[in-house]
Amino acid sequence: MSQAELSAALGISERTLARRKREGKLNSEESAKLVRLARVVERAEKVFEDFDAAIDWLKSANASLAGATPLSLLDTDIGAESVMDTLGRIEHGVFA
């Protein structure tokens, strides 16, 4: 995942992300978003049984998410739940 994609997922600019990296510290909202992102990536990796396939899926437009990329929905709890639900359906064979 590129720095631009990570900063977009966290809802902060690339410069702010670079500064946070240097400081070694995120604020509480950014930390919550990072944990949410990590949970979704972990779940996608489990479903697809491959880290690269999981990241590719997260970056690809998805019809079951109204054409949005799963990664673009992770900035809210509701969006993350939609992505997790979609992953659950894929895991159980509802969506091929």
Short structural summary:
66% of the residues lie in helices and 0% in strands. The protein has 5 helices and no strands.
How many beta-strand segments? Answer: 0
Q: Helix proportion of residues, in percent?
A: 55-70%
Overall form: elongated
Summing up helix and strand content along with how strands pair, one would put the structural category as mainly alpha
Which percent range describes the beta-strand content? under 5%
Q: Main sheet, how many strands, which sense, barrel?
A: none
User: Helices and strands, in N-to-C order?
Assistant: HHHHH
Distance, first to last CA: 24 Å
Low-confidence stretches: none
SS element count, helices: 5
- Residue-averaged pLDDT, rounded? 92
Q: What is the CA-based Rg, rounded?
A: 14 Å
Kindly give the count of domains: 1
Question: What does this protein structure show overall?
Answer:
The model has no long low-confidence stretch (mean pLDDT about 90). The longest helix has 21 residues, at about 30-50. It contains five helices and no strands. About 65% of the residues lie in helices and about 0% in strands. The protein is elongated, with a radius of gyration of 14 Å. The protein has helices at about 5-10, 15-25, 30-50, 50-60, 75-90. By secondary structure, the protein is an all-alpha fold. The protein has one domain (about 5-90).
